[in-house]
Design goal:
mainly alpha; 2 strands; rod-shaped
Length: about 110
Amino acid sequence: MPYIEQILADGATKKISVSADVSKASILIRDQWRLLQEISGELTPFTEKVKKQLEENSSAEHQAELLNLKEEYEQKIQELENDFQGRTKEIIRERLLALAGYPINQH
């Protein structure tokens, strides 16, 4: 004889005898309910797996972006240092020439 189980407030189950049609309908409703739960992400670990994978991919992309920015700014810093050193050398050269009495070429 078909039956369905009712879960009571204390967690215990109670078997209730039903007709075959009610049993089939209960199974259909249960399956539809599980489908809705899976779609919403409440039931399946698939959603958690996808979420974790997205977080890992996002983290990897973020790290790659940070690395690119770091390299870009290190290059800019190096260019600024090279420019500063070049200008400093030129200023020192002109001042030494002026101290030695040579005319300074104005650009």
